């Protein structure tokens, strides 16, 4: 069975897409914050069984709010086969922020470019192939209320789950100055086999620099704790 | 390190990420006619207006209750007549006196008097579904939150509270999206003051009794919702100054886009919320009705099979606590209703249905003819039901979400105290103004 997590900013139509995929009727509301707990449903595509998890809507993956933590913990700890990042095509500037965070987590990300009808209506011209190339992830355009693109989405999800290993890793740089810092911390972290085999070491390094509570707690238990913390002092 | 990342590394890293996004979008996206005034812009100009925003919200809310009242009244009368007829049939047709009493007194008078409120509840949820699906409700929450933020309170409290119009439990769960723990606690603690669907039957019954005409009665129900919102703001201010000092986190709220609600999704929405009322009627309300019915017909010999309520256990209980509520001018049944209403607030209505011994008369008509409430005491009773301890399920939700026993207990204590204070003030001020 393939596990698929749905994630995205609040009110981009995640739950609607979830209902489309699973045939369930979860409460869909026209205000941000309808889903605060994860919900699961199932569907099949050409004999493949998919388990779909609807995560709470979130702008970011910090530890400040409980719903963000729920979403992040799920991706970090449960490691779903595919993470479908649902993106509001009319508001890419803000929505892609979460996409970058997911890429840092080295999740097997796939973007569903939702509200594609509105994108066209507003005269926004998105070169999907180019965007897909830049982000290094497959992109499917969808319209949740009508169900456009849902079959294609399932197909790409199955393909992505199978080709997990041969993914091209795209690194979006923070600029030379910060990259140098990340590299140094990452080197120290990768000495701790226990940590670096469980989590992506680059992600841990970035979170250490951000002083993320949860990650700092993990570092506390590391034998290389002092060396790592020395870097960020 | 501080040379590169500065005081707040999180902000610097976020800026760099946005920089990377901007670079990608520069090449992959072209926008044409960006300055077009969209439909959303136009509507927001009106609905989010600094001066007009709140009056528009109040006017819409008032209209919702007028609509709820006017459209549901004939259906309520029909259901009332149906249960009265059924009760009469049961009394005449069932040989076993215990069973006859249970079906007529417990099911028809008790549960039936709650089911009479299916039409207004569904009408209210229909109206709210339209407001929500259209995208307006999020705006109303934003307008309220703007005031909250100016008062030094958290600016994202009303979104979860607005969804409390249906039920307080999902509203309390929705506070998880509030980042600051203090802000979240305040929002949870004041949430029960926002009226839920279970309180509507009480409002509709009592306001119908004391004001008669649906126009005034609708306004009275509306005033309960507004009173709840006002008290929530006042209590939030008090908690901010005492228990949870500090500055609120600045808030960014993304407003959904306006859309014409589809018939299907609106009806589905109404049904999803309304079905809970039916489920409760068949479970917890049903169970409490059995308990109250049992207590109202026993001891069987003394009450002559439930004919003389004054001799029953429940009357004993009622008269025991009557002195507490006597200053408000309420009878002993009100005390019983309030106590059992802790389990589910609809039970308040069921209690009156069973204990008035109305026979085939509707509960509302019986309350009028027996003169149980004056407009003043009835209004104070509605306020009391609004404020005092929310239902047991809400207390459970507060327990789960705060992860402590302390906060649900505190919520029950402060709400009960507040209920006495506010109802007392209503009675006191009413007397001063010359109402009886």
Write a concise synopsis of the structure shown.
The complex is a heterodimer of chains A (233) and B (436). Chain A is α/β, with parallel strands linked by helices.
Overview of this protein structure:
The complex is a heterodimer of chains A (233) and B (436). Chain A has 233 residues and is α/β, with parallel strands linked by helices. Chain A contains 11 helices and 7 strands. Chain A folds into 2 domains: 2-162, P-loop containing nucleotide triphosphate hydrolases (Rossmann fold, 3-Layer(aba) Sandwich), CATH 3.40.50; 176-231, no CATH class. Chain A has a 6-stranded mixed sheet, sandwiched between helices. In chain A, a hairpin with a 2-residue loop joins strand 2 (39-45) and strand 3. The longest helix of chain A is centred in the C-terminal third of the chain and has 16 residues, at 176-191. Chain B has 436 residues and is mainly alpha-helical. Chain B has one domain (53-246, 274-432). Helices cover 71% and strands 1% of the residues of chain B. At the A-B interface, helix 2, helix 3, strand 6, helix 5 and helix 7 of A face helix 2, strand 1, helix 7, helix 8 and helix 13 of B. Strand 6 of chain A pairs antiparallel with strand 1 of chain B.
